[in-house]
Amino acid sequence: MSENLSPQLLALNFCKNPLCADFGSLNAANYSLSSATNNPQIACINCHSISPIIWPTELNHEVTAQLEHNHAGLTACTSEQCVNVGLNVQLHPNRYYAFGFSGDKQRYRCKNCQKTIVDRFSVENPNLKTHVTILALLLTGFSLKEIAAKLKIQAKTLNDHIKVMATICRQKSSVFDHHWKNKGQKFLLGSDWTFLQPKSQNGVLWVCTGDLDSHYIAQQSLNLSEQKITINHRFIGSDFLASINTAPPAPKTEALKDIIESLNVAHQERTHLNNPLHNQTQLNYPAKSSLVSPIYCTAAHYLQLNQALGNKEQVMLSMSFEPMLADAAMLSFNAMRQKQSLDLLYQVEDESWTEGKTGNKPQLLRFEDSAPPWSLSEQWHLRGKADQRAICQLVESNLTQKQAHQLPKLSSITHYMDRFHAMFKSSVNEPRRKRRPEGLLPLLDIYRAWNNLCHQENPGETPAVNAGISEKPLSLDQLLQ
Ligand SMILES: [Zn+2]
Ligand SMILES: [Zn+2]
């Protein structure tokens, strides 16, 4: 069957088992394709690992959909087919002509496709005061209902304000993201994921990747699409029900070894390793949106980062123990792996692990199945139990095991997501939002911009300041103007 394996298909579906001799091989002779079912799978002949096929065109659609969301409302060309699509006038002035005014607002014309764009950001935000008040109230935990009542406005009006605020924040983020990706040659990134509404069981996943040293959140993606489900592999149907009924086993103790062991068992129980929804037995399917298959969402997430960072000398990506993240990263950053500029690892550590302090010499940690080996290091104390960190190096290019154990903690990314859940608790847990998760999208855009540009972890230090791309923290006025 290997004649059906086109280079495009192999580029996404190569063997991702780091222990296999054919790991990363793009040679069709090393694979076999089963087309017996309506869900074709690919098998590595050497290690016998079997995966559902990831389809190139469907993945492209997902990348486009995520980009469209990130570009919505920016002053940039909007023609799908144009090379300038999504490229900010502010950052790429040579791609546009100034083209008169629309009212008070500056107008531009795309040099490539001649489309005209009005720059809404060329005049002051007429609702700045209201927007700052809304954001301040949101950040102090008021619910949307309470905010509407306080400001004596309709829920619909509040919603419209929030959408405009989100557009302004996306515009600000696009400028700082541009500076972030140009800040150097070496990137130390961390990824984690969670459910967007942990109590809602609606299958919406939230994947985040950021700088581990500055805590700048570079990319966030949700497996939520406003497109209607069509017959294809990118979507999860509304009739989806997991086949597995058992809850993941609780770890025997709180030791990292037992935590990893129990996660391992939970992963093995999935229909496929890279689909965390495959042990969700109940799903409150979104009423107005479609759920994207997690691997497509996550691969599109990393493909955008690869687009931004593909030519860098060194990219180190550390992630929580989740095969969905690892598989998606491997296929998205494969060219970087081939150039030996990529390191990819799982990282799990005790909450009280001290960053910047070395532990003892890492010891090998083996588990029963054939998963790649982990190594464990400990920080000892005079009293009490030691703090532990466990690392599993999936792709090794530049990082030694010792260096891997000295990396910053992954918790900055996890805390970013936890903080959203805490700050926007009333919106996240609102019962009627269980099946309407798309209402949270504008809040997420606002939250990321606020986190990167305004939120001070230490006085004067925002993630953007720490990344060297902002001189000082932005006030809420500056964020929303
Ligand atoms: Zn293999
Ligand atoms: Zn254009």
Automatic annotation (TrEMBL):
Name of the molecule in the record: Transposase
The organism of origin for this protein: Vibrio comitans NBRC 102076
